[in-house]
């Protein structure tokens, strides 16, 4: 759980340190803008941007029932962010598993990617797809929801 917050915390702390230095040197406006940028970066790399994560077994159980894809992801992954933002509101139609919070999810990703924890790994109908195009993922979503 803590591992997921290391990068966002570092972004926020670095922004705070740089902004403090800028305020002390007489540039409060620039300091505020820079701090805002660092806080936004921290937020984008945190778990807050993604829907709440499920455990891998729970995601698999739900996917078997409703046919929705499972997305294995981790905070700080630019390809996961790309998928998340390109899916827009439809993001909530997938089952998300944070591999840094779920050892079973990390194991599933390693099994699908020759021992590597390459994310996003999207599982559709039991078949894993590593870093698929967001448009393709959108096509895999049930149209009724």
Automatic annotation (TrEMBL):
It comes from Streptomyces poriferorum. Pfam families: Glutaredoxin. The chain crosses the membrane at residues 31-54. It comes from the Bacteria. InterPro entries: Glutaredoxin, Grx-like_ET. Residues 126-145 are annotated as: Disordered. Keywords: Membrane, Transmembrane, Transmembrane helix. This is Glutaredoxin domain-containing protein. The keyword Membrane applies. Residues 71-127 form the Glutaredoxin domain.
